[in-house]
Amino acid sequence: MTLKIKNASPTATKRRGGETARGVDPVVPLAQVADFEKEMNAAQVDWQLVSYSGPVHSFTQKKAGNDASTGSAYHALADARSWKAMRTFLDEIFVAAAAE
Region Disordered: which residues (predicted)? Predict the structure, then answer.
């Protein structure tokens, strides 16, 4: 099976983006998030930013441990939710095609 980009025009391909983030991340200041939003909007990118309550930075990495007070820790629920969001995003972009 191969994957092909849906609507594979150069414009459509360049203007898709996705991002997941936490509401308050000690590693990524809110000002940096705001700058990201401005940059994506200025480029007219179809993007999304999702904030999850509870987790801190590295919430999808089991090796980050479970002590949120360090600023990096795994969070199972946010990990599962972010993976579902990423799969939805990828489903919007790619379409499975039979291998030739």
Answer: 1-23
Report the predicted TM-score, pTM, of the whole model to 2 decimal places: 0.72
Mean pLDDT in consecutive groups of 10 residues from the start of the chain, 100 residues: 48 59 74 88 85 89 93 93 88 60
**Cβ pair 25, 53 in contact under 8 A:** no
- The answer to whether the CB of 64 falls within 8 A of the CB of 78 is no
Q: Which domains does the chain have, with CATH numbers?
A: 2-97 (3.40.50.1820)
**Around Cβ 22, how many Cβ atoms within 10 Å?**
22
DSSP state of 55: -
Q: Hey, how many other C-beta atoms are within 10 angstroms of the C-beta on 71?
A: 13
